[in-house]
Design a protein that fits this description.
Blueprint lengths: L2 E8 L2 E8 L4 E8 L6 H9 L6 E10 L5 E8 L3 E7 L5 E4 L1
Antiparallel strand pairs: 1-2, 2-3, 3-4, 4-5, 5-6, 6-7
């Protein structure tokens, strides 16, 4: 399936959406300031084994196929980079 994407940068934020070739919406990703993540996500992160890693970026991801998720990107010099996926209630879904 071919897809099209649209990205908008404004006021220090980035918003991107992906659409089917026919125009149907698939997903939207929005960059977030770290402190604008929901409190349950922040609390869960602070209690995770990644709490002492460097916080690189954060995004919200809305999809036609899945519920709202928050992606948090962290790095640690000797261990590389991880993308943490959280549910809105703070559950760590996966880390890769």
């Amino acid at each position: 399936m071919k897809m099209k994407s649209l990205w908008i940068r404004a006021l220090g934020s980035c918003l991107g959406s992906i659409f089917e070739k026919t125009g149907g919406w698939l997903s939207t990703e929005q960059s977030l300031q770290w402190d604008s993540l929901p409190h349950p996500v922040l609390d869960s992160f602070r209690l995770s084994k990644y709490a002492n890693w460097n916080k690189t970026s954060a995004f919200s991801l809305r999809s036609s196929e899945a519920p709202l998720q928050y992606h948090v990107v962290v790095t640690k010099n000797d261990l590389g980079r991880r993308i943490l996926l959280f549910s809105p209630d703070g559950k760590l879904i996966t880390a890769h």
